[in-house]
Amino acid sequence: MASLSFKKVDKEIIENILKENKPYFQEIKNPTLSALIKTTNNETISIFKNKTVLIQADNPTDFALRYKLIFKNNSQAVQAKQLPTVVKLISPEIINKEETILGCDEVGVGDFFGPLVTCCAYVASSFKDEYPKIYSKIKDSKKLTNSQIYELYEDLQGKIGFSVFIMDNTLYNHLYDLFKNTHKLKALAHNQALLNWFEANSQDMYYSKIVMDKFVEAKHYFSYLSDRKEVIHDKMEFHTKAEDKYIAVACASIIARYHFLEKIKMLELEFKVELPLGANNSVKLKVQKYKKNNWDVVHHFTKMHFNSKITN
């Protein structure tokens, strides 16, 4: 059984949950609770007086999506602690008002297995001069070995700031079923990494621009976010192959890759499966095997909409 917790939930969402689950109300023994619900789907919903909603279920994302707790239209964005995220705070001495860039990139888009991971990295223009040895090693994560990724991730600690958002496979699959558009999912994930960054570091923190590795035209990116209440858009630029042009984007790529690889390890241990990277025929054979033999759990580590048909 897994759990998801949401803070400061809108009043209308709570009222809707209570209205639709009235037959499943339980006796309340905890004085901090305003309602306790146990559904026939083995879901336990605890609604606290401070407007926190705790979902405990085999698949809590189902309930969260049903009641628009995740990426809710016209409401607050998902908070940093509600879904897997990592925010590395910036040290004041790193800030350089000459040119400090927030670079954004994503990892996991082309892999059958594992989550979609987005990262924004906050890198000062002085980084090259202050850390020339590290700077010389940094490049797009696709051009680095896994051991190089791990080495550079450790090298970057304390020298840059970053925010990582991990859209795990369960959430990814649910959102894809809703929207049928991977670009929208990437836009949602990037926007969430940025929101988490500014929430942790304050909206007043200086940056000269945000550079997004371009996966879609700017107008489409923002159209995918048109139903979100909070969208980061100020001073944002979109560039193709941005990881080769901007050190901040390359750093974002490396950090996202590190967290992707770590998540793959966790999934392999949790579900006792081997999760090779990529989408070639040997990977597809694994996908076919897991869909046949591990159907109950395969959606927890696989992007289900990918075509697993073997190609010549």
TrEMBL record:
Catalytic reaction(s) noted: Endonucleolytic cleavage to 5'-phosphomonoester
Cofactor-binding details, from the entry: Manganese or magnesium. Binds 1 divalent metal ion per monomer in the absence of substrate. May bind a second metal ion after substrate binding.
Broad class of where this protein is predominantly found: cytoplasm
Compartment(s) of residence: Cytoplasm
GO CC annotation, single: ribonuclease H2 complex
Function in brief: Endonuclease that specifically degrades the RNA of RNA-DNA hybrids.
Family: Belongs to the RNase HII family. RnhC subfamily.
Record protein name field: Ribonuclease
Provenance organism: Spiroplasma culicicola AES-1
